[in-house]
Design brief:
Strands 3-2-1-4-5-7-6 form a seven-stranded mixed β-sheet, with helices on both faces. It is α/β, with parallel strands linked by helices. It is about 40% helix and about 20% strand. It has a single domain (about 5-260), classed as Vaccinia Virus protein VP39 (Rossmann fold). The chain contains eleven helices and seven strands. It starts with about 25 loop residues before the first helix and ends with a strand. The structure holds S-adenosylmethionine (SAM). Keywords: Catecholamine metabolism, Methyltransferase, S-adenosyl-L-methionine, Transferase. This is catechol O-methyltransferase. GO terms for molecular function: O-methyltransferase activity. Pfam families: Methyltransf_3.
C-alpha cells in the first residue's frame, strides 16, 4: 500500500493536544457532540453513520486514537472472508473498532464480539455508542486489563472454546503475555486468526518475534520466559502496511494458526 492510497482529505486532527493523546475530556466531549447532532435520529441503529459521526468529531474537534477507516477496512475484509463466530478485542477505547468489526461480524453471520477495555470511562462511552449503533446484542464490553478480561470471560464460561479471531489493540507490552495466556487456556488453535495493530507505530518486536517464530524457536523462547505460552502452535504470519487516520504509516500483523506440532 502506498501513501497515495490514503485519502488526505479524510485525515484526523492531531491526537496530541498539550502533550496528551487521550483522557483530557475529549471522550466525553465526543459523546456530547454525537448526541447533540441534528441528525441523531438517523444514527440510531446505523453502525456506519455512528462511525462517520466519530470520524467527523476527530476531523473537526480533536483527534482520536481509533483504528480509523483505512486500517479498519483491512480487518473488515478479513472478517468477511473468515466469517468468525466470535471475536475477542483487547483495547476498546470509545468503541470505534467494536462498532466497525461488530457490524462486520454480524453481517458475516457471527454472534459475539467481546471487547475488553481497561478504562471504565472509555468503556462507558463505548457502551453508549454501541447501543446507539444498535449492536448491543452483538458487542459486549468488559472493564479490565486484557489479562483480567481474558480470565473473567474464560472462568465465567463466556469464552469456553477456541477463538475464531482476536484483535490486539491495547497496551503494547501486554500483547505477547496476553496472547500466551489465550494459548495456555486453549483459546488459540488451528483456524484462529490473530490481528495486532500498531506494529510500526510504535512497533512491537516481542510480539512480532513470537508470532513469526517456528515451533522450535518458540520452544527456546518459552524456556527462558516467565510467561509460558503454547509453543507447539504453528503460526503463519504476515505484515500488512497501512495508514493511521492521522496519515502516519503503520502495519497490522495478521497471524493464522495453521496447526499444532506434537
Ligand atoms: C489504541 S486504543 C484502542 C482503539 C480501539 N481498538 C479502536 O480502534 O477504536 C487503546 C486502548 O487500550 C486501552 N488499554 C490500555 N492498557 C490496557 C490493558 N492492559 N488492557 C486493556 N485495555 C488497555 C486504553 O485505555 C485504550 O482505550
Amino acid at each position: 500500500m502506498d501513501i497515495s492510497d490514503f485519502d488526505r482529505s479524510r485525515i484526523y486532527l492531531s491526537w496530541e493536544v498539550d502533550g496528551k493523546f487521550h483522557s483530557d475530556g475529549r471522550e466525553v466531549a465526543l459523546l456530547e457532540y454525537i448526541y447533540n447532532r441534528p441528525d441523531i435520529d438517523q444514527l440510531r441503529g446505523n453502525p456506519q453513520r455512528v462511525l462517520q459521526a466519530i470520524d467527523d468529531f476527530a476531523r473537526s474537534v480533536t483527534g482520536l486514537i481509533n483504528i480509523g477507516e483505512t486500517k479498519g477496512a483491512v480487518v473488515t475484509k478479513l472478517i468477511a472472508n473468515h466469517k468468525p463466530d466470535t471475536i475477542l478485542e483487547l483495547g476498546g477505547y470509545v468503541g470505534y473498532s467494536a462498532i466497525m468489526f461488530g457490524d462486520a461480524l454480524r453481517r458475516a453471520g457471527g454472534k459475539q464480539y467481546h471487547s475488553v477495555e481497561k478504562s471504565p470511562l472509555f468503556a462507558a462511552v463505548a457502551a453508549s455508542l454501541v447501543d446507539l449503533a444498535g449492536l448491543r446484542d452483538v458487542v459486549s464490553i468488559t472493564v479490565g486489563t486484557g489479562a483480567e478480561g481474558i480470565q473473567r470471560l474464560y472462568h465465567s464460561g463466556v469464552l469456553k472454546s477456541q477463538l475464531a479471531m482476536a484483535f490486539f489493540d491495547h497496551h503494547k507490552p501486554s500483547y505477547t503475555p496476553d496472547l500466551k495466556r489465550c494459548e495456555r487456556l486453549g483459546l488459540v488453535g488451528p483456524g484462529t486468526v490473530l490481528v495486532a495493530d500498531n506494529m510500526i507505530l510504535p512497533g512491537n518486536p516481542p510480539y512480532a518475534e513470537w508470532v513469526r517464530a517456528s515451533v522450535a524457536e518458540k520452544r527456546e523462547l518459552d524456556r527462558d520466559s516467565e510467561e509460558k505460552g503454547n509453543p507447539n502452535l504453528q503460526y503463519r504470519s504476515r505484515s500488512i502496511k497501512s495508514w493511521e487516520p492521522s496519515g502516519h504509516e503503520d502495519a497490522l500483523e495478521i497471524t493464522e494458526c495453521v496447526g499444532v506440532e506434537a
